[in-house]
């Protein structure tokens, strides 16, 4: 039986989320959502159920740079790292959802690491 792209996405998402639940020790979760046009990132405290910081390419200063979406993702990654520092967060878990770790997701993660977030 062949799985559809959507089924594979959902399987990856559950696998990633279950790993995070097992290993989480009260740390914040850096959740990433990518659409065809934009990328959204949130730092979430799962214990209290609050969003601590967020960044997105929907914000005017973080919009797309030229034709390359990875540049915009890198901008969002460095911005979320700055906002996490302001919120007093240094370490978190990276929740990529069902998205593969390459392209814009990898660019975002690398920029957040360079900005000082540890995951």
TrEMBL record:
Family of the protein in this entry: Belongs to the universal ribosomal protein uL18 family.
Protein's gene: rplR
Any GO molecular function: 5S rRNA binding
Gene Ontology BP terms: translation
Assembly behavior: Part of the 50S ribosomal subunit; part of the 5S rRNA/L5/L18/L25 subcomplex. Contacts the 5S and 23S rRNAs.
This protein's record includes keyword rRNA-binding: yes
Cellular component annotations (GO), alphabetically ordered: cytosolic large ribosomal subunit
Function: This is one of the proteins that bind and probably mediate the attachment of the 5S RNA into the large ribosomal subunit, where it forms part of the central protuberance.
NCBIfam families according to UniProt: L18_bact
UniProt organism field: Tranquillimonas rosea
Keyword annotations from UniProtKB, A to Z: Ribonucleoprotein, Ribosomal protein, RNA-binding, rRNA-binding
Superkingdom of origin: Bacteria
Transmembrane segments: none
Any one Pfam family match given in the protein's UniProt record, by short name: Ribosomal_L18p
Stated name of the protein: Large ribosomal subunit protein uL18
The keyword rRNA-binding appears for this protein: yes
InterPro entries found in the cross-reference section: Ribosomal_L18, Ribosomal_uL18_bac-type, Ribosomal_uL18_bac/plant/anim
């Amino acid at each position: 039986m062949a799985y559809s792209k959507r089924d594979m996405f959902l399987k990856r998402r559950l696998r990633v989320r279950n790993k995070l639940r097992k290993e989480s020790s009260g740390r914040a979760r850096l959740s990433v959502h990518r659409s065809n046009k934009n990328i959204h990132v949130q730092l979430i405290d799962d214990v209290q159920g609050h969003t601590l910081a967020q960044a997105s390419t929907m914000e005017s200063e973080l919009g797309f740079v030229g034709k390359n979406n990875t540049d915009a993702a890198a901008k969002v990654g460095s911005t979320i790292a700055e906002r996490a520092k302001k919120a007093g967060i240094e370490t978190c878990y990276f929740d990529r959802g069902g998205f593969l770790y390459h392209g814009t997701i990898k660019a975002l993660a690398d920029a957040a690491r360079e900005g000082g977030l540890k995951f």
